[in-house]
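#onboarding

Welcome to the new folks! Below is a worked example of what a typical request in this channel looks like: someone posts a single protein sequence, and someone else replies with the predicted structure as tokens. Don't worry about understanding the tokens yet, we'll cover that in week two.

Example request:
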Amino acid sequence: MVICDEAHMMKNPDAKRTQIATNLCDTAGYVALLTGSPIVNRPYELWNLINTLNPVYWQNWYDFVMRYCNAKTNPYTGRFEYKGA
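Example response:
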């Protein structure tokens, strides 16, 4: 079992801390993520946490941002934006 305290620090997928913690959690039979801090500024920040807790159910990032983050292509830049609520 892996217990991660201050789990809200795992919201950035590019951070080394997140990568190491996620790899460690992937090898564990059970995972508990603890935090006393508010997590959600934007729904996409939850992705790493929920995917770590249940990677079978939450396996498709694209489906998640389309449903929960108001994801769309910006008509002016052509970039995919997923930072909505």
